[in-house]
Amino acid sequence: MAYPFSGDQALFTIGAKKIAGGAVLYRDFWDLKQPAIFLFYLMGGWLFGFHEVGIHLFELLYWMGFAVVLLFTLKKYFDDRVILILTPLLTVGIYYAISGTWHLTQAEGLVGFPMFLALWFALEFKAREQGLPVPMFLSGLMGGVVLPFKFLFLPIVVSFWLAAIIHALVQNRSSIREVATRLATPVLAGVMLPLLIAFAYFAATGTLELVAYAYFEYPSRAMAELPGQSVGRLLHCIQWFLGWSAPLLGLAIFGTFFGRRRGLLTLNLWLWAAVGLVIIFIQRTSWWEYHFVLLLVPLGVLAAMGLDALWTKIKADDTGTFRRRGLLACLSLALLLSPVLLTLALKSVTLVRHRFALKKDQRLAYHSIVGQDYGVSDYETSFAEVAFLSEPTSLVGNIFVCGNPVYYHLSGRDQAIAANGWMLELFLAEQWQQMTRQLSEARPSYIFVSAAYTEVIRQKSPEMTHLLEVDYNVLRQSSAGVWYVLH
Question: Which sign does the torsion angle of CA 61, 67, 69, 72 carry?
Fold first, then answer.
């Protein structure tokens, strides 16, 4: 719970705090992410506080709820109840084992819960049963919850519904009319409910044009105008993914071919993994490790079912031949999973050694150890960078950071304008102009430009460079970047 924020988590927390204070997303705080991630942080902040412990505690409770749902919904698909109990370990447990500061509380992980429910409710639908088709409405509703996290996930949930439609037409011999009225219509109604609520909110705040830009115009233009990430980054992400998923994949394949037939459940889980992999690959302007967390839930559940199949065959073998081979396979899988489990154990030991980071000095020491991902400054460095802002001689007012939003979080200073400086490499031409215009009007007391963005600003925005040279003086420099102070 005391895990530090990376830049993304700090940004989402800042956005959620602004919304809690009456700001409107995309008008008073702009980011390309869709609203559900900010709503999640808003709920966590309201309940437990807009800080590391509060947000991560809310996420932990969220995942614990998911673990309970897995045990309840999957019990009829397992032969051995002990193996069923391992399902949360192979999903939620793996999630916490592989996640660093960058991976926690991202949309790709959080959608696992509602996406699984969209899948499961679709399995519960029986086309020829009498009564209201409630399962399909709930499946659509869960799909509608997924989409405000990322519209790009739509093909995954649609694949669940297409599988249900094909099954109803072919296996159950339902008519097209039955499928339309008892399957497609309830799904559409469920999907539209969360979307209409979001539409009504943005319509009431007069921000529909900004929403359309963030959801549709910007992504399409960014794909066309901005260079994609290097193949090397994608290969690095694939290597990270295979490092923790290889044992799960092995068990998943075994269970699919040699386990008890589980029909649509197995099919939909593989559809989730396959379509999800395609969605990851087409996001060529990003390709971050946490994108692959989208595949954790289907692979974890499939792996648990594979382990159930393996254990069932071991128990049923009277000759001892398969038993010996099966036990050897279990031992091999345990060895393959040992790095992941060891990581989880080391994280736990580190937290215990710092007495659960309950006090401020303990948290600082703990954050300095675990808070270094992707070369992002650890908390000790970040605290040093923002320390002067709390001195009596420092200027009051908001600041602007062209770099890690953790600086806002640690300094207690607010972001001065709507644009955020955490995605400058992804800015289009008009966004550079908007940011410069907003800074000229707001005139924040201090502007920080990280070392990673110094050259980006010089090349992409002469207007921003001119603003810094004319209206600001260099206050201090370090390897992290440059602080500018208003004249």
Answer: negative
**Which H or E element spans position 245?**
helix 231-258
DSSP 177-211: HHHIIIIIHHHHHHHHHHHHHHHHHHHHTT-HHHH
Token pair for residue 466? 């001119």
pLDDT tens for the chain, residues 1 to 487:
678 888 899 999 999 999 999 999 999 999 989 999 999 999 999 999 999 889 999 999 999 999 999 999 999 999 888 889 989 999 999 999 888 888 999 999 999 999 999 999 999 876 556 667 889 999 999 999 999 999 999 999 999 999 998 888 887 777 788 888 888 999 999 999 999 999 999 999 999 999 999 999 998 898 888 887 888 999 999 999 998 898 899 889 988 988 777 788 999 999 999 999 999 999 988 899 999 999 999 999 999 999 888 888 777 766 666 566 666 666 666 666 666 767 766 776 776 676 666 666 666 666 666 655 544 456 778 888 999 999 999 999 999 999 999 999 999 999 999 999 999 999 999 999 999 999 999 999 999 999 999 999 999 999 999 999 999 999 999 999 999 999 8
d(CA 283, CA 301) in angstroms, rounded, equals 25
Backbone φ/ψ region at 372: left (φ over 0), alpha (ψ -120 to 50), beta: beta
β-partners of residue 485 are 446, 473
Helix (H, G, I), strand (E, B), or coil: what is residue 417? coil
Count of Cβ atoms closer than 10 Å to residue 248 Cβ: 27
SS3 content of the chain, % helix, strand, coil (to 5): 70, 5, 25
Token pair in block for residue 323: 């038993």
How far apart (Å, rounded) are the C-alpha atoms in residues 385 and 413?
Answer: 13
**Strand runs labelled E in 305-415:** 399-402
Nearest-angstrom CA–CA distance, 436 and 123: 52
Altogether, the residues listed in the chain come to a count of 487
What residues contact 343, with CB distance under 8 A and at least 6 apart? Answer: 97, 98
Can you say whether residue 435 is alpha, beta or left, with left for phi > 0 and alpha for psi between -120 and 50 degrees?
Answer: alpha
**Rounded Cα distance, 433 and 413, in Å:** 24
Distance, C-alpha 318 to centroid of its chain: 46
Yes or no: say if 268 and 118 are a contact pair by the CB < 8 Å rule.
Answer: no
This prediction has a pTM of 0.92
| Residues 453 and 480: beta-carbon distance below 8 Å | no
DSSP bridge pairs for 476: 483
